Structure formats: structure tokens, C-alpha cells
């Protein structure tokens, strides 16, 4: 089942969509809708961690250090999703967390493409 990355990629793509839906609902003032989407997003955090962990344990012999770093950066991305949404809900500044989210997301995507299970078109 985990010879490829389809389940993992599907969960994080859905999570990114849910994150931006939650941000949009907050900006539109629909706090109840944002709360529901945020709870569904938290379920997807668990699914991302589960599918990523299964991929890690199955394929860690290929490049264990890089897969470990990718896993840690992936947790960083999830943390920044959560920090942005919670601080938005509280009305606090989110600028630093948006920057961290962007940096972490770029790193995790580049690592994912560079690793043996990725597309590896980066060289």
C-alpha cells in the first residue's frame, strides 16, 4: 500500500485547501464555519502524520537523514498552520507565522521532490 506517495500527497493537498478555506471563512467573519473546517483540518494533520510515518518506516533505509529532516519540517508546517489559525482567531499578529509557514512549505516540498520517492527532477 505504501510503495508510493498517493495517500500522503492527497492528505496534504486536502489539508492545504482546508487551511485556506478556514482563513477565508475567518476573513469573511464566519467564525462557526471556520471552527468546523479547523476541526476537520486537525483530523487531516493526523492523517498526514500517519501516512508520512508509514512511508518513513517503509522507505527510511534509502535516505534516513533526509527523510527524518523532511518529517521534522513537515511537523513544522503543521505547527505553522495551527499557529496562523489560532492567532487569527484570537486577533493577534500572524506575520511571523506566515513567513515561517512559507519557508517550511518550500523546504518540505523541495525535499519531497528531491528524495527517491519524489519526482527527482531537481537533479
Walk me through this protein's architecture.
This protein is an all-alpha fold. Helix content is 80%, strand content 0%. It has one domain (6-114). It has 4 helices and no strands.
List the helices and strands and how they pair.
Elements: H1 6-27, H2 31-59, H3 64-90, H4 95-114
Give a brief outline of the structure.
The chain is mainly α and 123 residues long. Helices cover 80% and strands 0% of the residues.
Pick out its properties.
single chain, 123 residues, mainly alpha, 4 helices, 80% helix
* Cα distance spanning the termini: 27 Å
Helix-and-strand structural type: mainly alpha
Average pLDDT metric: 89
- Low-confidence parts lasting 5 or more residues at pLDDT below 50? none
Percent in helix: over 70%
The largest sheet, given as strand count, sense and whether it forms a barrel, is:
none
* Radius of gyration of CA atoms, rounded to a whole number: 15 Å
**SS strand fraction:** under 5%
Seen as an oligomer or otherwise, the chain set is single chain
Number of helical elements: 4
The number of domains:
1
Shape: elongated
Summarize the helix and strand pattern as letters.
HHHH
Kindly state the number of beta strands: 0
Amino acid at each position: 500500500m505504501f510503495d508510493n506517495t498517493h495517500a500522503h500527497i492527497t492528505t496534504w493537498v486536502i489539508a492545504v485547501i482546508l487551511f485556506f478555506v478556514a482563513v477565508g471563512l475567518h476573513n469573511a467573519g464566519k467564525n462557526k464555519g471556520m471552527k468546523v473546517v479547523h476541526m476537520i483540518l486537525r483530523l487531516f494533520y493526523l492523517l498526514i502524520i500517519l501516512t508520512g510515518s508509514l512511508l518513513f518506516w517503509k522507505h527510511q533505509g534509502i535516505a534516513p537523514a533526509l527523510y527524518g529532516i523532511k518529517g521534522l519540517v513537515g511537523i513544522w508546517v503543521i505547527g505553522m498552520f495551527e499557529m496562523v489559525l489560532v492567532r487569527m482567531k484570537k486577533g493577534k499578529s500572524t506575520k511571523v507565522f506566515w513567513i515561517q509557514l512559507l519557508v517550511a512549505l518550500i523546504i518540505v516540498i523541495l525535499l519531497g521532490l528531491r528524495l527517491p520517492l519524489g519526482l527527482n527532477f531537481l537533479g
